[in-house]
Amino acid sequence: MKIKNSIGAALLLAAWALPSHAQIGEQRQNFAVGFNGGININSVSFSPTVRQKSLMGINGGLTARYISEKYFSMICGAQVELNFSQHGWSEFDEDHPELEYIRKMNYVEIPLLAHLAFGRDRGVQFFVHAGPQIGFFISDTRKKNDAWNNYTSTPEQHDKNVENKFDYGITGGAGLELRTKAGNFLVEGRYYYALSDFYKSTKKDYFSRSAHGTIVAKITYLFDLKK
User: Fold this and answer.
1) 7: pLDDT strictly greater than 60
2) What is the pLDDT of residue 119?
3) Can you list the positions of beta strands (E) in the chain?
4) Which of 74, 93, 108, 182 is most exposed, with the fewest beta carbons within 10 Å of its own?
């Protein structure tokens, strides 16, 4: 009986909150599309550990955004992107600085982001993005210098192909948007944390963890299709 009362109270609260929200929120139907481009600063979380330094890659593609309402001073909406993105790692061992190995991994990625902004409709806005991201591995390139010829053994990760091509994780960041009559210009920084491993990670496998971690800096241009 207590459970039923709790559910009933929750439904009544929701029924009260929805019209109140509709009254306070200023409804918007702003749909914008455009393109984005930037750089990734990559590393990979390996277990066992692989010594490495940051690897730079490119990131760019298409962006679509829908603004649904302004709630007090907060502008609420959603954003989706379709990007080509380079991940991977660059190995560096202080004990053997002559050795070089670079793996660049190419993905098609789809971030699904909540968009929360503060500021004027025309002028500068501060915004926050957060949400899930999925990716699909399409290809990779490997660079290995001749110094490795002096070693009889090859590290496990060098000749190992990607085994899990579907990548997923969470991403979030913040930035500034300049809204003008000529369009909207965004500058943003994000961090992507992969929850998936690109190598198999069962008990019989060598790596128990092989996941991307990426700092993203990008610029986006959007133009309004519907205001």
Assistant:
1) no
2) 87
3) 26-47, 52-53, 55-71, 74-91, 101-119, 123-144, 166-180, 183-194, 209-226
4) 182
**What is the tally of structural domains in the chain?**
1
Residue 116, domain CATH: 2.40.160.20
Q: Are 217 and 56 in contact, with CB atoms under 8 Å apart?
A: no
Which amino acid makes up residue 217? A
The predicted pLDDT at position 25 comes to: 55
Whether omega before 132 lies within 30 degrees of 0, making that bond cis, reads: no
Distance between CA atoms of residues 52 and 50, nearest Å: 6
CA pseudo-torsion sign 204, 42, 139, 157: negative
Q: Is residue 14 part of a domain?
A: no
Q: Which of 185, 213, 211 is nearest to 198 (CA)?
A: 211
- pLDDT over threshold 70, residue 189: yes
Instruction: Give the structural domain span for 186.
Output: 27-226
Report yes or no on 13 lying in a domain.
no
In this prediction, what percent of the chain has a pLDDT beyond 90?
Answer: 72
Map tokens 């309004």 to a residue. Answer: 224
168 part of a folded domain: yes
Q: Is the pLDDT reported for residue 174 higher than 60?
A: yes
- Which residue in 164, 173, 183 sits closest to 33, CA to CA? 183
Spatial neighbors of 127 by CB under 8 A, at least 6 apart, are 75, 115, 116, 117, 118, 174, 175, 176, 177, 186, 188
Residue 64 lies inside a defined structural domain of this protein: yes
